[in-house]
């Protein structure tokens, strides 16, 4: 565990604050009944910006083993994520021709929600998932999975067994690794000579632009610009040859990389175009990052203004979803059962628990029909359209949907 204020990529001293969200519990540390009266650990949720490489990052206060060994998030419970995965698989097969002769390896493969679509196409797959409970679910679903943390050591072990990837996939994992250099070094080892890497991760440019501060939590050690990611990969002799901007998580990037020694890939025009866009937005200047805190503070004030006003008017408020991002927002704003009566979630792995820190109870979606709240706050705003469609019946009693990010907005 590293609690020194040093950049995890270039080792420069971290002196400048990006945003300080105070003290917060681990975002996926859902509370059971027996834990309600026990001490709950809180850690600083303070992000820094490196003035040398412009990597936004959290200091590591808790080990990945403590955070990820028993994990509450299962991707298969989101219809939107399943559709995103299905479209990705179809695109990759059409573009690069992966087949029964290929080996696809996904890092942080969760419950196999993505690899199942490759398997359906007859493409051999292997998942690497550190959370043992989630890995078991993938295996039960017929997806070959090993439960390990990925890095240079795991990659070397697999390579010694003759296992390397024609395609290495990492969706929403790059931000989750505290030892960034070891992780990317592992990618280099695990990739076949003419193989391809794709990584998806939230784009810091969109996080700032859309005020997505709730996507900051202890599982996310790093927050990337495209330029910084390209520099990290180049440092480890990997070339980023293409990039897509995708809609997931409020605005993410999908990068395509290969070995530096592999000259068969042409560099897409989109690579330099996106770097130019980032420079135009100011992502190469310290000032662009350090001013973000003020917009976050103002958002907190507006959220609390809304809640105080509506509760004083006698309105009842419930929340849909128990995502990590919601736990950041609720703890930063100090929103407990004095404002939100309960939360509902489709995942049985969260039902019957309480949100960390704020101790709002999590129950089944059917509770909404029973209690008929005036407002349903959508905490996983990134899939709000999916949720509003599923829960459209709240309009029968005049219920309204609310999202807090990027700003407070009520949907009739």
TrEMBL record:
<dbReference type="InterPro" id="IPR052356">
    <property type="entry name" value="Thiol_S-MT"/>
</dbReference>
<dbReference type="InterPro" id="IPR029063">
    <property type="entry name" value="SAM-dependent_MTases_sf"/>
</dbReference>
<protein>
    <recommendedName>
        <fullName>SAM-dependent methyltransferase</fullName>
    </recommendedName>
</protein>
<feature type="domain" description="C-methyltransferase">
    <location>
        <begin position="248"/>
        <end position="406"/>
    </location>
</feature>
<dbReference type="InterPro" id="IPR013691">
    <property type="entry name" value="MeTrfase_14"/>
</dbReference>
<feature type="domain" description="Methyltransferase putative zinc binding">
    <location>
        <begin position="7"/>
        <end position="68"/>
    </location>
</feature>
<dbReference type="InterPro" id="IPR013630">
    <property type="entry name" value="Methyltransf_Zn-bd_dom_put"/>
</dbReference>
<dbReference type="Pfam" id="PF08421">
    <property type="entry name" value="Methyltransf_13"/>
</dbReference>
<dbReference type="InterPro" id="IPR038576">
    <property type="entry name" value="Methyltransf_Zn-bd_dom_put_sf"/>
</dbReference>
<dbReference type="Pfam" id="PF08484">
    <property type="entry name" value="Methyltransf_14"/>
</dbReference>
<dbReference type="Pfam" id="PF13489">
    <property type="entry name" value="Methyltransf_23"/>
</dbReference>
